[in-house]
Amino acid sequence: MATPPTATTAENARLRRGCGDELLYASLVRGAAGLASLPPEERLSPLCDMLWDALAPRGCSWIGFYTIDPATPLDRHARLGAMLLVARRDKPACSPIGLHGVCGQGFLEESARLVEDVALLGAGYIACDPRDRSELVLPIYRNGMCWGVLDADSHEVACFGAADLAGLSGVLRAAGLLHHEPPLRADRLQEPDGSV
User: Fold this and answer.
1) How does strand 82-89 pair with strand 112-115?
2) pLDDT higher than 70, residue 166
3) Quick one: average pLDDT of 86-114?
4) Domain locations along the chain
5) pTM of model > 0.90
6) What is the 3-state secondary structure of the chain?
7) 167 contacts 28 by C-beta, under 8 angstroms
8) Please, which residues bridge with residue 112 across strands?
């Protein structure tokens, strides 16, 4: 799989760090709450559609849910297992995927992953679309156990930021798929002044 180019100084100077805002996510939270009474498996596709419709015009290039493959043995310590794509918009993606990439790390660590430039990840990055430049991953839960992840990609460097992390966490909580704030593991670019 191709490694995307690193961000240029000009790109770093105009880092976006935000796809959605409070108003957008408040609306999505209300919609997600209406899905909470469905079985967990039946929440993913309509939630994916709702998120895509709201975030695609704002720079999201793909969004989907991966869940752990029940047919594959899972060994969290050895990072062995596989995840299956169970809902997605708007194009196909890799499936199954191993647990060594960003989605697998988010699942195994039960952490949010905010990657401002996927080139920062090096060889461990799973590139389903070589145009993708940034990614946001959040764990999802079923019956109190981490079951998979929400994965959002963008062709823009630093498309996702703190508002997206908080907003998507709120959406997943309203849909009954997230019960606590996951720790954040971020791969961030530096501003020209050295700050992140």
Assistant:
1) unpaired
2) yes
3) 92
4) 19-180
5) no
6) CCCCCCCCHHHHHCCCCCCCCHHHHHHHHHHHHCCCCCCHHHHHHHHHHHHHHHHHHHCEEEEEEEEECCCCCCECCCCECEEEEEEEECCCCCCCEECCCHHHHHHHHCCEEEECCHHHHHHHCCCCCCCCCEEEEEEEEECCEEEEEEEEEECCCCCCCHHHHHHHHHHHHHCCCCCCCCCEEEECCCCCCCCC
7) yes
8) 184
CATH code, 19-180: 3.30.450.40
Q: Taking Cα atoms as reference points, which of 187, 165, 169 lies closest to residue 177?
A: 169
Note the pLDDT tens digit of each residue in 109-140: 999 999 999 988 887 677 788 899 999 999 99
Q: Report the Cα 136 to chain-centroid distance in Å.
A: 3
Residue 160: the pLDDT is 95
